[in-house]
Amino acid sequence: MAGLPTYDINNPADMDYPEHERTYSGFLTATKWGSIAVIAIVLGMLVGLMAGGGFLGGIGTFVIILAIAYFVA
């Protein structure tokens, strides 16, 4: 059978706060650029497939949206 926990609840272990903040920052960056990439893909598909821009128009829109996001975000 499992026994009672052997750690001290009044004296918790030390946290590695710089690593925690670096991981959280990476998560936020991945979330931001993932959202930007999805929006750029959807807008590229909109221009390429629905607005009559064709393949090159869709790719151009995708690249332009990513370039704008790079300088703004």
In short:
The protein has 73 residues and is mostly helical. It contains two helices and no strands.
Q: What average pLDDT do the residues reach?
A: 89
Total number of beta strands: 0
Indicate the proportion of strand residues.
Answer: under 5%
Shape: elongated
Q: Specify the structural class.
A: mainly alpha
Uncertain ranges: none
- The radius of gyration is 23 Å
Main pleated-sheet profile: none
Count the helices. How many? Answer: 2
Distance from N terminus to C terminus (CA atoms, Å) equals 54 Å
User: Percentage of helical residues?
Assistant: over 70%
What's the SSE pattern?
HH
Detailed description of the structure:
With 73 residues, the chain is mainly alpha-helical. It has a domain at 33-72. It is 73% helix and 0% strand. It has 2 helices and no strands. It has helices at residues 17-50, 54-72. Helix 1 (17-50) runs antiparallel to helix 2. The mean pLDDT is 89.
What attributes does this structure have?
mainly alpha; 73% helix; elongated; 73 residues; 0% strand; 2 helices
Topology summary:
Blueprint: H1 17-50, H2 54-72
Helix pairs in contact: 1-2
